[in-house]
Amino acid sequence: MRMQLNYLKSRRITEGATLRLLSILKMLAQIHVFLGILMLILSALADYVSSRKNTIRLNGLLECCSFYFVVMGSVGLCGAASYRRGLVIAILVMSVHAILIFVPGIVIVSSFDIHFHKHECWGSCDWHLLATSLPQNSQCQILCGTNVDEHKRSVMTRLGTDYRLDAGLIALAGLELLFAIATFLISLKIICSKITQQPIVEMMPLTAPQVQQADQSNKQEP
Q: Where does the sequence pass through the membrane (predicted)?
């Protein structure tokens, strides 16, 4: 009897801890969706500003990274709501991708944009800067600051975008990195927490002699 009660009590504690982890995962997933939407808006706005000022930037790259964060948050919401181990494993893998690939990609591209814009850099190539393949014996040059006169500016293309947009993207990417690390740890803890689905021992009613014996044992205990 006492062993059954101890088993039920430990089972409730384990399930309660797992439910708390799932609620934390749900909160983190909502944050991922929110940050992803913000970065998606800033990335689209940076591309729009770049097109208006006729500057060169990697259009679409930051939008893809931001959309990945939205998808990761959506998967986390589904996994936290249904507690499907497959979805929890999926968000764990996606958080690793976010930490190692997508967040560094946003930081690197935005840092280059800030650097080029701050130093007033211009570039020119005998092939298109966004071409998928490079011709043989091609040439490119990047000039910054006072090295660019009016004649060179007329034949070269401005590099970089408004630093305020890129600084906002870098700040949001830093937050995304922290929350992605937290998501990885919470997901790993949920996966490692094994709730054993053991059958509960059916409780049989005690007979009169067993009741008397239990009362006597309780009286003997200090």
A: 21-46, 58-80, 87-109, 167-188
